[in-house]
Design a protein that fits this description.
The complex is a heterotrimer of chains A (399), B (508) and C (140). Chain B has 508 residues and is of the alpha/beta class. Chain B has helices at residues 31-42, 83-98, 167-177, 193-203, 218-221, 224-228, 231-246, 303-307, 347-361, 369-391, 416-424, 431-438, 451-461, 468-472, 485-488; strands at residues 22-27, 47-50, 102-105, 108-116, 119-126, 137-145, 149-151, 164-166, 184-190, 207-213, 251-252, 255-261, 268-273, 287-288, 291-296, 298-300, 312-314, 320-322, 335-337, 407-409, 414-415, 483-484, 502-503. The two termini of chain B are 23 Å apart. Chain C has 140 residues and is mostly beta strands. Chain C has helices at residues 37-40, 62-68; strands spanning 45-49, 52-56, 75-76, 83-84, 97-100, 103-107, 118-120. Chain C is globular and about 40 Å long. The model of chain C is unreliable at 1-41 and 130-140 (pLDDT under 50). Chains in contact: A-B, A-C, B-C. Strand 18 (325-336) of chain A pairs antiparallel with strand 22 of chain B.
Chain lengths: 399, 508, 140
């Protein structure tokens, strides 16, 4: 069998030298980088996407594919999530079947009256910000999710929560980007930046130079390393998470179901293990069980504490899963910024360098909005959402 | 044979201090594990031997259980080969168990190993309810992993029909319980193991219609020096050949199964000759069969060493194996690995490696004459194994016999066209991405059967040779085996203060 | 057992028509060439497979007993509804899953045959475990 030449012109096809020239070079071919490339190419820019490994090989392939509005309190991230929802359901709607976009809805459950009250206050704030958030009484939870244990204090239903298959998402976004003229360069680590004085004018890999007046740092959990190449600090740290995967089951769990404490975990800065159950079914029949968060650097070995916490959390919500077997576990490293907001937009400290990274555990869901906004900014136009809260030189990222 | 326990009764509990670690834990009671365990025990160490099998011997020394009413003794067990060595190891096992130095837990599947500052924690689960006593958690200062290997497979059209089995599986059925999986048998693939399987089935009364060996006999001619270092292997091989001759089993070389035919079960197979480039020619006439036993070498089971982060390399047969030093130490402090997991090479090599690992882990001298002899034996067997691997490669053109609808991943029913589309349409150029896009390797068996094919196809479509990373994509399993959420829920209590199921070395 | 092909020298068996249809669980088609006389009389266990009685020997696994009785498939796949039985034979491929005495997804190739065992097929759309009370020490 012969390998086919890759769409979009991998290096060497026709040009004399390996060096290439584009309008935008996106560093990192995960969900955010792929979405940026897709929208930028669609906007008519000449785009290159580089990755040190396989596209989607980083955190994008280690998550669950969450597209949520439910887990964010009011603020810039919720605004971004709502904007992202619009992009998923409008500009990206025709492609949704490629990445198994499923608007299954989310159900948040509160175990105690105190957490239920906090949840009610949260849904009230979210509704005021335009989120569809329905308070659910304890008696109605069973109708939404028959397997939930009795005795819960109440919950909330978010019909807008959705799920995608993230590796399919990355692959198809890149395919569509290539169809719009983008070039994808996998297995090419960016080892340096091209500079002209203070300006960033491109990137260098072991194989070639890629000239581009705009370089987008979409390197996820490794975005700090890319920023350092430009001499700027971006305090992105890895926040490890594990997911358990069960044996294939008949349809058991209808929504993404998680405990009200999850929102607190996401917003916590604690380095120690935090765990709050997040459970959902998949089209393949397996049930995914998350979530854990801890700051242990890039330790890739299985963790007893994390796996045990995942199982206990799941059984706390769905006790009938007791004899169901987990057949697999995997882990990933969320890119985490100290003020829990992503970094999106131009970097005034290094003109020509842009960032689209630091999305913690929401990168898949926020990729659509981030990519679309950044493409708007890259073409010089106004952005649908104010990017100031996500600026790389904001106070929340200092020191 | 353990009798089932009615629901609701409690399992036997080990009355030991769960915080008292064993000196050495050995996982796997095949040739390497048995040798390691008895050697470490002989060195005065407290040893825990955990094995998924109900009886020791692993795959190599699989044997039926004793007849009801008879006591199972080492003299009454008949194994396929090297019976004297197995008998000696079993005697030693019984001896050390009786002396209280060695705790043997058969029927225990180890599913997670982790390491902390006090040593290793080993989680296991009984394979069958009714297993007693049960040890779910153990702690050990040193760990010797001897997890063995399983048949490697290559997909072929029709291979998912009932009546197609792994060669090792067909042999295991006969050796372990005297059940024949078919009466008209075709044995195919590559490697000397096919001769052993065919001979055994023929002796058992099956009609073996042929052994179809993809390799070429000339491939051995240039490797005779390696063969000469282990004359016992040549003798063994000739023995198999003689058995096949006695049963008039045709042995065809450069021949592969091109497709398996049948509606709801195997009815026939069609052969093809391989050309000099390893590509299959057109399919020949149908040969009626009711069992096709396929084997393409072996894949070591690496999930436990990989859980600990042990370094690996690619061996001469293209398998991912653990890298060890000249004392069988892996690069993780306190971890030894022996047997097939360091390189597929057979029972005798496994025994030698296990013995050396046992000496080393027990802190016994590894410089003396005994150790030198072991190392010489290991070197000779590894050279032989290398020659064997190079003489029996996966045919370069094997994927030519795939059709678009040929299933590659049996568990998730992913076909060859889908795997190719992952590259052609979605740009996947490595096995991990192919796995994530197609679900190859994400079913129940977690890539044990399709891992090799997925790695080979992914790299082939990308126009390059397979790398370690390609194989690791389906070799790493943070959960080595399926385990219930209920069992997982008990993780996190490292002191073992719950349940009393943890076992310590305190008592013999 | 009344199969007259039980004994005899099977090495001369090359009549293609003797490979019958083994996809049905007709228990009396089995005896694949057992040559050891002492085992002939030792089929002292009875298993119940989908309502039929199957003989088994102590020490056999459920998978071995099924195969020896001529049953080569007892499961259909989730995706394409294709038949599966034993493949790897040693507990690694998970093709041979079967419900044993109400416990779903047991590997037939490992499960020891016990007199009176009830073997049933778990259809892809069902999952008895989802309704189980928890915890049960034997449910794994």
């Amino acid at each position: 069998m012969n390998g086919r030449a890759r769409e979009g012109g991998a290096a060497g096809g026709g040009a004399a030298a390996d060096d290439l020239s584009f309008d935008v070079a996106v560093v990192g071919a995960g969900a955010v980088g792929a979405a940026t490339a897709f929208f930028a190419a669609r906007a008519g820019l000449r785009v290159a996407v580089l990755d040190r490994g396989a596209p989607g090989g980083g955190t994008s392939s280690a998550g669950e594919g969450n597209v949520l509005v439910s887990d964010k309190d009011i603020g810039p991230e919720l605004d971004l999530a709502r904007h992202s929802q619009r992009v998923w359901r409008e500009e990206l709607a025709e492609h949704g079947h490629h990445w198994e976009f499923e608007s299954k809805g989310g159900v948040v459950v509160a175990a105690t009256l105190a957490s239920r009250d906090a949840l009610r206050a949260l849904t009230a704030r979210q509704r005021a910000a335009g989120v569809v958030a329905l308070d659910v009484g304890p008696d109605e939870l069973g109708a939404l999710e028959p397997g939930l244990r009795p005795g819960l204090a109440g919950g909330a239903h978010y019909p807008e929560d959705a799920q995608v298959q993230p590796v399919l998402l990355v692959a198809h976004l890149l395919r569509l980007a290539r169809a719009a003229g983008a070039t994808v360069l996998p297995h090419e680590p960016v080892t340096g930046l091209l500079r002209s004085g203070e300006r960033v004018t491109g990137v260098r890999t072991p194989r070639r130079s890629v000239v581009a007046p705009a370089v987008v740092n979409a390197a996820g959990t490794w975005a700090g390393e890319v920023a350092a190449l430009a001499g700027v600090r971006l305090p992105v740290l890895p926040r490890r998470g594990f997911v358990l995967v069960t044996e294939p089951l008949p349809p058991t769990i209808r929504h993404k179901v998680y405990a009200a404490e999850y929102v607190g975990d996401v917003g916590s800065s604690d380095a120690a293990l935090q765990s709050s159950p997040v459970i959902e079914g998949t089209p393949a029949g397996t049930v995914l069980i998350g979530s854990t968060r801890e700051r242990v650097g890039f330790d890739r070995r299985p963790s007893r504490a994390a796996l045990g916490a995942l199982a206990r959390g799941a059984l706390g919500l769905f006790p009938a899963l007791h004899a169901v077997r987990a057949i697999r576990a995997y882990h990933g490293f969320r890119p985490y910024c100290p003020d829990h907001l992503p970094v999106i937009g131009p970097d005034p400290r290094a003109p020509g360098l842009w960032h689209a990274c630091g999305h913690e555990g929401a990168g898949i869901g926020l990729s659509a909005g981030t990519g679309q906004l950044l493409a708007q900014a890259l073409t010089g136009g106004p952005t649908a959402l104010d990017l100031a809260p996500f600026a790389p030189d904001r106070k929340g990222l200092a020191a | 044979m353990p009798t089932p326990v009615e629901s609701g009764t409690s399992e036997l509990r080990d009355p030991r201090d769960p915080r008292d670690p064993f000196d050495v834990a050995v996982v796997g009671a095949g040739p390497a594990g048995l040798a390691a365990a008895v050697t470490a025990a002989a060195g005065g160490r407290s040893v825990l031997l955990l094995d998924a099998g109900e009886r020791p011997g692993g795959q190599f020394w699989r044997h039926p259980p004793p007849a009801p009413g008879s006591a199972e003794g080492e003299d009454t067990v008949r194994v396929h080969h090297d019976g004297a060595r197995f008998a000696a190891l079993r005697r030693a096992l019984a001896h050390h168990v009786a002396r209280g130095r060695l705790t043997h837990r058969p029927g225990h599947q180890v599913w997670l190993v982790t390491r902390d500052e006090d040593g290793f924690l080993i989680e296991s689960t009984p394979v069958h309810p009714g297993t007693a006593p049960v040890t779910r958690r153990a702690r050990a200062r040193a760990l010797i992993l001897c997890p063995g290997a399983a048949d490697r497979q290559l997909p072929v059209p029709g291979w998912t029909l009932p009546g197609v089995m792994a060669a090792g599986g067909a042999q295991a059925l006969w050796q372990g319980q005297r059940a024949l999986a078919g009466r008209r048998v075709l044995v195919a693939g590559t490697g000397p193991f096919l001769l052993s399987v065919a001979g055994g089935l023929a002796e058992a009364g099956a009609r073996v219609v042929g052994v179809w060996e993809a390799g070429s006999p000339r491939a051995w001619a240039s490797r005779l020096p390696a063969v000469a270092r282990v004359p016992a292997k040549a003798v063994e091989g000739l023995g198999h050949v003689a058995t096949l001759a006695r049963h008039r089993v045709p042995y065809l070389t450069r021949t592969v199964v091109r497709e398996v035919l049948g509606e709801d079960r195997v009815r026939a197979a069609r052969p093809a000759r391989l050309d000099a480039a390893g590509r299959p020619g057109p399919a020949g006439d149908e040969v009626p069969v009711d069992l096709v036993a396929l084997g393409w070498g072996f894949t070591p089971s690496l999930e436990l060493p990989l859980q600990l982060g042990a370094a690996t390399r690619l061996d001469a047969d293209g398998s991912l194996v653990v890298t060890v030093d000249d004392e069988q130490r892996a690069d993780i402090p306190g971890l030894w690995v022996a047997g097939e997991a360091t390189g597929v090479g057979g029972a005798a090599l496994g025994v030698a490696e296990g013995t050396l690992a046992g000496l080393s882990a027990a802190g016994r001298p590894t410089e003396g004459r005994a150790a030198r002899r072991l190392r010489a034996r290991i070197a000779a067997h590894r050279a032989f194994a290398r020659a064997m691997h190079l003489a029996h490669p996966v045919p370069a053109g094997w994927s030519d016999w795939l059709r678009d609808d040929t299933v590659v991943c049996r568990c998730e029913e992913v076909d060859a066209a889908t795997v190719r589309a992952a590259h052609d349409t979605l740009g996947a150029d490595d096995a991990r991405t192919v796995k994530m896009l197609t679900r190859c390797g994400m079913g129940w068996c977690q890539g044990r059967v399709c891992g090799l094919a997925t790695a080979l196809l992914a790299s082939h479509h990308a126009g390059r040779a397979p790398t370690e990373a390609d194989l690791a994509a389906t070799a790493a399993r943070p959960l080595a085996f399926p385990v219930t959420l209920g069992e997982l829920a008990e993780l996190g209590d490292e002191e073992g203060g719950f349940g009393g199921d943890a076992v310590g070395a305190g008592e013999g | 057992m009344n199969d007259d092909r039980r004994t005899g020298d099977h090495s001369r068996t090359d009549d293609a028509s003797r490979t019958g249809d083994h996809s049905r669980a007709h228990g009396d088609r089995g005896a694949h060439g057992d040559r050891r006389a002492e085992e002939e009389g030792a089929r002292s266990l009875t298993l119940h497979f989908e309502g039929r009685a199957l003989p088994a020997r102590p020490g056999q696994t459920v998978g071995g007993a099924l195969v020896a009785a001529g049953v080569t498939a007892w499961r259909t796949t989730r995706g394409r509804g294709r038949p599966r039985g034993l493949f790897c034979g040693i507990g690694l491929c998970f093709d041979c899953l079967l419900t044993v005495d109400g416990r779903p997804d047991r590997r037939a190739c490992l499960e020891p045959a016990v007199d009176g065992m009830r073997l049933t097929v778990t259809n892809p759309g069902e999952h008895p475990r989802a309704d189980e009370e928890a915890p049960d020490a034997d449910a794994r």
